[in-house]
Fold this sequence. Notes:
Helix content is about 40%, strand content about 25%. It is an alpha+beta fold. The protein has three domains: about 1-145 and about 325-350, Nucleotidyltransferase, domain 5 (2-Layer Sandwich), CATH 3.30.420.40; about 155-190 and about 265-320, Nucleotidyltransferase, domain 5 (2-Layer Sandwich); about 190-260, Actin, Chain A, domain 4 (Alpha-Beta Complex). It has a six-stranded mixed β-sheet with strand order 3-2-1-8-9-18, sandwiched between helices. A five-stranded mixed β-sheet has the order 12-11-10-16-17, with helices on both faces. Strands 13-14-15 form a three-stranded antiparallel β-sheet. Helix 4 (about 85-100) crosses helix 5 (about 120-130) and helix 6 packs across helix 12 (about 325-335). The chain is flat. The two termini are about 25 Å apart. Mean pLDDT is about 90; it is low at about 1-10.
Amino acid sequence: MLLDAVLGALSKDLGIDLGTANTLVTARGEGIILMEPSVVAVKKGTNQVLMNGEAVGEKAKQMLGKTHGSIQAIRPMKDGVIADFEITEAMLSYFIRKAHGRSRFIRPRVIIAVPSGITTVEKRAVINSAERAGARDVRLIEEPMAAALGVGLPVSEPRGSMIVDIGGGTCEVAVISLLGIVCSKSVRTAGDEFDQAIIEHMKHRYNLQIGEATAERIKIEIGSAYPMEEEKTLEVKGRDTLAGLPRSVVVSSEEIREALRPAVDEIIGAIREVLEKCPPELASDLIDNGITMAGGGSLLRGIDKLVARETGLPVKRADDPLTAVARGTGVVLEQIDELWPVLANGRDLE
Length: 350
């Protein structure tokens, strides 16, 4: 017991937003100290991480779509959950080691944000991976709660607060009151689905094959969910699927908006479903409090205007929406005594 107390005093408590697209790490008293892509480069056919285990994050993302036959760049998280356990463990181990910066004998306490819709088995997999990666004590927090805390919503008060967190793998919609999620919906339609919709559009309309990085660039530069004041065009380069040769085309923001519409409509549907399930007293609070949007997907142009039009409620995008969930884990680390009800650990999942 004394040894545990000493190690606990020496360790650095960490909060982790283990995202499909990016992983962010927060340290107690320091804020966000690490933000890197959730990508790992391995020797093909094995789980051996390249460069002495250092081909993780930004270094690995630069290899996506550009590796030769013996190297494979993998995103071990899919739709907000672990798709490859060994690679996720290697990735977590790298991030924890890099963020903690202490002796490997001093293991940190860790809070990890997870989608609200994942199963008990999937939650257990996250805890086991983090423990094997070097965490001493692992607690989970649901992503919409973490995002709400991160953007400063009054989640402990007896009034309704609504958060829409659009990440890389999932969209989390929740109404929160008195430190609890009253009603929620988690859909596996988010930033990755936006990218995939663009890839499919380019393939079917132009017979042009593009990669994930190019699709993401199109989304960022000309993607939108609502008509723009000044529509844009962009030159896109890829490989002709018929001739097999490099080719470029010019695409418009209007056609990309049409390509994104099915995915955006699914998110709108999730928001409507949560509003329909919301108790009347909390629903009335939302008329004044409105909806707060967070996550990288909320940066899609005009999606806040579309949500406002479809729901009739005021909508605002959080400041720095990409870091909302990570900042929320930091809030819990700083106020652990007051906010412990929002956490779960392994024993809670037995």
